[in-house]
Design goal:
The radius of gyration is 18 Å and the shape is globular. It has an eight-stranded mixed sheet. By secondary structure, the protein is of the alpha+beta class. The chain has two domains: about 150 residues, Bifunctional nuclease domain; about 45 residues, no CATH class. The chain has eight helices and eight strands, in the order βββααβββαβαβαααα. Helix 1 packs parallel to helix 3.
């Protein structure tokens, strides 16, 4: 079965399930999207790696990578392999220099590990046909994105953004250290972005 390469397009709070996030994957050379609902912990693990934030202590997926490096095996690719009764299944394809091994996984964990190894994410036509959403044109995409932003911008999020804009460089540094100390990585990413804008 032919593999279809996917890219991570976005990660946002789920409209349908409280405390969950929608991970949106897109077909590399097409206009189909594959949304997968994932948990808060896995969303955080994906977000901090995408934002290149170094946690104070290794998270589970970082630990997996350290373990792999210590025992001299690597991850070759991630495959979102099945969809059964609305649940996605994935495989982590590993290689130790001699043989290839395949590990079953939830897609969220597989992707969190895959981005740490900088490997491609694949699926197949059956899954994209069954669960994929076709983006018909850019105007509709823009409207969907704007609606997503409007629904996720709660007053507290805006006031935190205002707080960052008005903070001094020293205050931002203190806020960043505090966020990292509390393992609030999404908050740390926003603070780091504000610091980057000023440099």
């Amino acid at each position: 079965m032919d593999k279809i390469k996917l890219e991570i397009l976005g990660l946002s709070p789920s409209q349908s399930q409280s405390g969950s996030f929608a991970l949106v994957l897109g077909e590399e050379y097409g206009n189909r999207r594959l949304p997968i609902i994932i948990g808060m912990f896995e969303a955080q693990a994906i977000a901090i790696e995408m934002e290149k934030i170094a946690p104070n202590r290794p998270m589970t997926h970082d630990l997996f990578k350290q373990f792999a490096e210590q025992f001299r095996f690597t991850v070759r690719e991630i495959m979102i392999s099945e969809l059964r009764e609305g649940i996605f299944f994935a495989k982590i394809v590993c290689f130790d220099g001699v043989r290839e091994s395949v590990i079953d996984s939830r897609p969220s964990d597989a992707i969190a590990i895959g981005i740490r190894f900088d490997v491609p994410i694949y699926t197949n036509e059956t899954i994209l046909s069954e669960a994929g959403i076709t983006a018909s044109n850019s105007d509709e995409d823009d409207e969907e994105q704007e609606e997503l932003v409007r629904s996720s911008n709660r007053p507290t999020a805006r006031s935190f953004g205002d707080q960052l804009k008005n903070a001094s460089a020293e205050e931002l540094q203190k806020l960043l250290e505090e966020a990292l100390g509390n393992e609030e990585y999404e908050r740390a990413a926003r603070i780091r972005d504000e610091m980057s804008k000023r440099n």
